[in-house]
Fold these 2 entries.
Entry 1:
Amino acid sequence: MIVVDRVTKIFDRGRPEEFTALSGISLTIAAGETVVLMGPSGSGKTTLLSILGALCRPTSGRVQVAGRDLTRMPERSLSLLRRRTFGFVFQQPHLVRGLRVIDNVLLPALPVSDPEEGLRERARSLLERLGLGCRAEARAESLSCGEAQRAALARALILDPPIVIADEPTAHLDTARAAELISLLASLPAGGKTLVIASHDPLVAEASFVERILAMRDGRILEAG
Amino acid sequence: MRRRSRTAPWILSAAVAVIFAVWLHAARLERTAGRDRVETLSLIERLELSDLCLFPEAPHTRHPAVVDRHAAFRLHPLAFDPHPTGMFVRPPRPPGTP
Amino acid sequence: MKILSRQRRLFGLALAAILRRRSRNLPLVLLYTALVFVFASVVFCTAALKREARLLLRGAPEIIVQRLVAGRQELIAADHLESLRLIPGVSHVRGRIWGYHFEETTGANLTLVAADDSRLAPGTAALGRGVARLLGADPGQTISLRDPHGEVHSIRVAEVFSPASELAAADLIEMPVADLRLLLGVPEGFFTDITLRVGNENERRVVAAKVRNLIPESRVILREDIARTYEELFDWRAGFLFWVFSSLAAAFLFFAWSQAAMIGGEEKREIGLLKAVGWELPEVLALKTWESLIIALACFLCGTSLAYVHVFSAGAFLFVPLLQGWAVLYPRFALVPAIDLPQIVLLFAVAVVPYLAATGIPCWRAAAAEPDELLRQA
Ligand SMILES: Nc1ncnc2c1ncn2[C@@H]1O[C@H](COP(=O)(O)OP(=O)(O)OP(=O)(O)O)[C@@H](O)[C@H]1O
Ligand SMILES: [Mg+2]
């Protein structure tokens, strides 16, 4: 369960260009729930997801994941949380150039001591399911935007995290690919995963597996649907 | 990760090969040098030589036995260390030479 | 085993990262290699010369006794031989006759020596390689030398010393004692100086003190002193080169630091990504350290191997002029590697450790930022 309690995020605090990206957001996401954040560009979706995913700390407020307060955790525990608890699909794919796709997918697993062969198998089957089976050995920079985004999803899932956070996962995909990706995402809650998606793609919002839609604007949540 | 498991051993073995080649070469040089040294040592002992011929033009270093405390003051002003062989500039020619 | 396989994977990733940033790393690698090359060449060169001096001086007489007059070396009377022989511990006493000869046509200073054994017939001489080269004299030919009275002596070349001996004998002309006395103007009953052999190492200082008592106007030179002079001489010259080198090294470290500090957006995003997918800071730093270490080790290996080739195969042609100074007659000799572990450790400590620090610290500072901030880098 994720509990967000009056979280604000102010960038460049105390400087002339100070900017309040999130102002007092409170929100509870139950385990296994699927939530979609919608809102115009600049409304703070990415910022909120970053705070949820322990990629940055809020300026004030608290975030609890499974009863543990992220805002008070030392950096080391945050790393372990990012590794084992969250699978994050960034707004940009952020694949490492020069590495093969499968190595990119395995990147989060590189420092862990799980059996390598098992991980490799898992990476292959994930890529297969995402329609990238034949591109597994290709260099990351040779992928198209949509392929890269799907590889990024595979990377987020490699360590089988209970919470998947996806920032605009369908942004670069055509309708058919987007539908495939959504169906893949849709299969996740069945595995007991909590899913938090930011998107302004109606396909995502209308998908049957979405349980709750939150509309964001100017760093606030407008309505709970 | 298969790609790097191919590159890494290659690089490592190249490094080991270089080190090994250097080691072999050094060992070979040392062997012949050992023979040369025996010969040179017998010459040194026979002629009672007391130094090496590294700096043949400098009485101070060719025969340290004749170095005196004033040597440092008799040097060329451009000498960069207190031995005349450190000079970048040749000494004046002896009178009468063209 | 797990640690090993993780480090292997990190190594592979670091290698890929270096190859990816080829164009950025190339000037750095070239500069670094060149620097290690210079430094290692100096170390190899001086170490080899020092060892050669140490080994060859083992054959030199333990004690040399010279007579000083008004602070200048003068001929020493042969009478002293007897009294010196009586000093306990002295196994062998010999009067040496030697001197310089300024060869007017070439301007070289040659060294004339004589040996006791009558290997050479009167009127003949054995030449060092360097002299033979300089005068263009082969065995069988004659050379002419001028004595103090201006008379020219024609001397037949009986022998040229082997190339192996060049480090000790390049500028030598060996002659029979009687000929040399004539040529240098050393009268019978006198020697240039006297050498003593003292078998027992511990007795040398005692013997030297006794000689000084016996012949108050003498200067006593111990072999250790000569050996030490050599060591100091090479250290001085190497020190001079190091001084030049250290400023280069400082400039390079500054370059490496600033390059690491100007971590590009891409590199920052990469660090951000690794942190965002759950890498701990030590793991990220381990990766970055591997990158620096691979570069440092590669440059270290290349630089030292090149230096090795330069010093021991190519005759150290870049440094010998500086270490040897100016001369008319250069001995030609090949240096023999005198590489030992402390030397390599020193090279390593000087070449690799500062580089790791110079590149590691900026990286560590960058990696301490939040992943979100790093990922947002343009
Ligand atoms: N590091 C930062 N420094 C200053 N301002 C920032 C920073 N990061 C984000 N912002 C600002 O915060 C606001 C919210 O950004 P955010 O990325 O969360 O929007 P978003 O809803 O994800 O938009 P989009 O749909 O375009 O991705 C934006 O106006 C952005 O300019
Ligand atoms: Mg966004």
Note: Confidence is low (pLDDT under 50) at residues 65-92 of chain B.
Entry 2:
Amino acid sequence: MPVKAKYKERGTVLAEDQIAQMSKQLETFKTHLEEFASKHKQEIRKNSQFRVQFQEMCATIGVDPLASGKGFWSEMLGVGDFYYELGVQIIEVCLALKHRNGGLITLDELHQRVLKGRGKFAQDVSQDDLVRAIKKLKAMGNGFGMIPVGGSYLVQSVPAELNMDHTVVLQLAEKKGYVTVSEIKESLKWETERAGHVLDHLLKEGLAWLDTQASGESQYWLPALFSELSSQDVTPEEANQMVP
Amino acid sequence: MDRFLWSSGLLEMNETLVIQQRGVRLYDGDEKAKLDVGVVLLSTHRLIWRDLKNHECCMAIPLSQIIFFEEQAAGIGKSAKIVIHLHPASPNKDPGPYQSSKFSYIKLSFKEHGQIEFYRRLSEEMTQKRWERTPVSQPIPTGTGSQVTVMSAWWSICVWSVWESLHLTPLPTSVPSSQAFEDLSKLMEKAKEMVELSRSIASKIKEKQGDITEDETIRFKSYLLSMGIANPVTRETHGSGTHYHMQLARQLGDMLLAPLEERGGMMALTEVYCLVNRARGMELLSPEDLVNACKVFESLKLPLRLRVFDSGVMVVQLQSHSEEEMIASALDNVSEKGSLTSEEFAKLLGLSVLLAKERLLLAEKMGHLCRDDSVEGLRFYPNLF
């Protein structure tokens, strides 16, 4: 008796039979997705809350709707293009500001600038959308990452190595946009050498600027942080552009 | 929270109620306001909040004071919120619940949901800016005992009774949205079946329960791609990718030759991503699509290569630009100038600073250059040892 038939007798379904089954089920699923899309495609595009729900449900069942532009989700629901385009906009904003902030930017500032770039009549994007787009960008190397700071995040877009020490100093600097060696020693109980080491690294990577003219001690400023603090004074024109 | 003004909550003439929502708590910036849960009302002119039990406690903000707003998704034990960023209060503003605030934003926390519809209506009102076109009559003063005109009193009585009826009758739930969630759940159930099936197949392939042909494997991979299911099998056995990726690779092979030449033979993958997607306009590539396509350059004998530097930076480079050539020319450039930083080198070759740095690092790795790392920058010198 051929090997195949023996397996069938034992009642085990073969992989190739399951693949054929999957092919059929896929066609059925596609139909369901098409139906869903015809009813709710607009809602997903317009409603960021709905997008969050959608993404979370996909994650729960083990599906990544953004893995490929060729995926059903992307093709039929249009979620792909939304996030991939957002990815392009994020990269461009980060690139444009890199000379100033060394490749580190607050999620808030990134959000504002992306919204501005998209214009008044474009679809709204939420910070959740940005975070998901950034997660996808990680696949392309280049050091895209997110550092939790002060209740939100700093988005890193360069491969600068930032370990726990660097991160905690960034968090310390978040409130005022700058930090001093004394503050680090006092808050974190570090020795001068360790503080100096971390600050030197941030300087070398272009993430921090040194202000030796400050009264008292030298201040290490993080452009990523203080540009966001100062940008809260928006001009009326900018304010108009930000309203969805 | 210092932008709020005490209000009677009564709508003025020409002011229309747009939507209201119960179960809303106010936040001063990130901190809960010292108020109970209440009702938030959106009119064509203002955002009004009223305490549920104590109707006297009522406050409002003109919509013109809103700079922009955004959603904050719900979390575990946390309601969904709308964060509203506000212009600073004018110095001669009427009194309100807060004298001052260190925050320039407030939050509305939706403990009984309704945030989606509220957000939508708020967006509409902020876009239409109806308050600019229909100015209200002299605002009714807050309960300090001043006189009101007969007309406005009559009007406020009408509005009040309307408000009451709305308040007592729950607003219909926004049917499309809840239907959408229901449909979504059903769809996900079906998607889950597909995931389970694919896992079963993957484990069988692993244990070789069957006779899978190369063709069937490729088909299976494309099914996984369509569904967005991660492929557990081919992570171990480097497959030939799907037909889709091979097709993409060929397209990229054509499309990138000229741009690569212009940029010294090398481009960061993020640069390629932007270039390609901007050119496509729609049916964009995902980052993973791009990476997977680049991985098959070599097997398709295309003149491009994907390359990952130690730093994790990924680039596409022309095969014609061999490693030795690049390092040798880097050494030449540095020797000629005595020393170079990444920025100087980038300018010289018309490369991005990122890639210029990678080349110098590579030359250093091969022992041709050595560095001088100071706070003024990283500078490379020919290695004379």
Note: Residues 5-9, 231-244 of chain A have pLDDT under 50 and may be disordered.
